[in-house]
Amino acid sequence: MLKIGLTGGIGSGKTLVSCLLRDFGAYIIDTDEIAKSLTNIGGEALPKIVKVFGKRVIGSNGLLDRSWLREQIFYDNSARASLESIMHPLISYYSDMMLRQYVGLYVVFVVPLLVETTIWLDKVNRVCVVDCDKETQIRRLSERNLSLDMIKRIISIQSDRYARLKFADDIIMNDSGISKHEVFKQVKMKHNFWYMLSKKFLV
Ligand SMILES: CC(C)(COP(=O)(O)OP(=O)(O)OC[C@H]1O[C@@H](n2cnc3c(N)ncnc32)[C@H](O)[C@@H]1O)[C@@H](O)C(=O)NCCC(=O)NCCS
Ligand SMILES: Nc1ncnc2c1ncn2[C@@H]1O[C@H](COP(=O)(O)OP(=O)(O)OP(=O)(O)O)[C@@H](O)[C@H]1O
């Protein structure tokens, strides 16, 4: 089976691209979605996170206080490493579980930190980067509940645009000035190519 790793910086357009690919028949395994379910009520990661970060990590509504946790991990490398040591093995495990239920033309793993970690590069046949300049990332993310400082901080922690592009077998350009329709056209071309390629990856 053909396995594509789809990556890109925060706010680059991975979700937009993966939704289009899903419509074309790709089987999508989204690591952000897995991370969310692991940290929602009853999620397997939640007790482990409370153990490391304390009860303060749960807000008054009983849910994980994502905003508080972001403040802890994005300004403290060792806190981030602690969270990642809880999350990454679980994300990897549940990605493998989802892979066993594979139905579709080919598989797309959506992984924000694909080039920052080693495990994902070994799991995929090709890396596709959704490429986007920093100013556009900041503009898109400013519509979310994130401060400008936090947005810049997350971007600075992640791999630099050009370092990420070095790993790319395929690129989807999604800078400012590229409309969603233009993204659609690029995604359709990638899909046609990957679908053709998938026939050589039948096992
Ligand atoms: C800190 C958490 C709880 C905040 O939750 P929230 O719902 O606000 O964030 P969300 O899951 O939507 O992530 C948004 C984006 O933040 C970036 N991001 C998340 N974690 C990290 C990280 N450890 N390092 C760098 N960037 C990160 C990614 O670009 C991601 O797409 C969450 O991001 C998380 O669980 N992070 C650790 C797991 C992880 O490393 N995920 C990345 C996928 S492999
Ligand atoms: N070409 C585009 N034109 C207009 N809006 C866009 C374009 N590409 C993405 N967007 C918008 O930008 C925002 C961020 O895109 P998206 O959620 O797909 O990024 P992401 O890489 O999945 O982000 P994250 O890393 O946070 O998960 C969304 O609101 C999306 O609709």
From TrEMBL:
Give a yes or no for keyword ATP-binding in this entry.
Answer: yes
List positions binding ATP: G11, S12, G13, K14, T15, L16
According to UniProt, the reaction catalysed is: 3'-dephospho-CoA + ATP = ADP + CoA + H(+)
Q: Where in the cell is it found?
A: Cytoplasm
The protein in question is named Dephospho-CoA kinase
Q: Which SUPFAM superfamilies does UniProt cross-reference here?
A: P-loop containing nucleoside triphosphate hydrolases
Involved pathway(s): Cofactor biosynthesis; coenzyme A biosynthesis; CoA from (R)-pantothenate: step 5/5
Enzyme Commission numbers on file = 2.7.1.24
Protein species of origin: Candidatus Kinetoplastidibacterium blastocrithidiae TCC012E
Which Gene3D superfamilies does this entry report, sorted A to Z? P-loop containing nucleotide triphosphate hydrolases
